[in-house]
Amino acid sequence: MMYKANILEPSGRADETSFLHNLQALREAGLQVDFTTYDEGLGDRFSPQGINERSSKLFQALCSDCHYVIASRGGYGASDLLSMLDWDHLKLQNPKILLGFSDISAIQLALYTSLGWPALHGPMPGSPLWSDGPDIDLLLSMLQKGRPWHGELKLKSFSEVGPVRGTLLGGCLSVLTNLIGTPYIPKSLKGSILFFEDTNENAPRVLRFWNQWL
């Protein structure tokens, strides 16, 4: 089976240095890849026209017949798109796996909260953090095979605990903290295993973010 992937730019612009090479890697892995770029003629991505364009492209991808929606890279502004989506219409669609991290976490959590769609927190082809290696090989293998995916996370524990089961939920700490109090985060986190990532945040800010989750 050939899986279809729709790559788009819901946040920042893809890093052109390696993006085309990484697109080719996805195609060589056996994926049918379509790339939808942001229309730079509309001007700033964060203007009303830019937000409308990005939300429209995202909505089209989520309603398409693809299996994966892949963000080219993170950046800023993904949470601006959430109120622009027709969630009632999305409930009628087949679930899509959204691949990304960083700013894309906002869309991933909203899709899970509103629709129950799972997501894949992983490297994006237009990000400089995508570099050939074991992690990319594993990602391509997962995309080739399709769901369901299985595996174990071996973590260092600071206390004596047994095996833990739950829904793995999380993403970029600063981005997801901004969703607290909105319809795009579950009302209850019972049964969830939280994970967070972030960069360039100092300790006091991280502590303030964390206190909002307690």
SSE diagram, text form:
Elements: E1 4-8, H1 16-28, E2 32-36, H2 48-62, E3 68-71, H3 87-90, E4 97-100, H4 105-115, E5 119-121, H5 134-145, E6 167-172, H6 173-177, E7 192-197, H7 203-213
Parallel strand pairs: 1-2, 1-3, 3-4, 4-5, 6-7
Task: Explain this structure.
This protein has a domain at 4-150: Murein tetrapeptidase LD-carboxypeptidase, N-terminal domain (Rossmann fold), CATH 3.40.50. It contains seven helices and seven strands. The model has no long low-confidence stretch (mean pLDDT 93). Helix 6 links the parallel strand 6 (167-172) and strand 7 (192-197). It has helices at 16-28, 48-62, 87-90, 105-115, 134-145, 173-177, 203-213; strands at residues 4-8, 32-36, 68-71, 97-100, 119-121, 167-172, 192-197. It is α/β, with parallel strands linked by helices and 214 residues long.
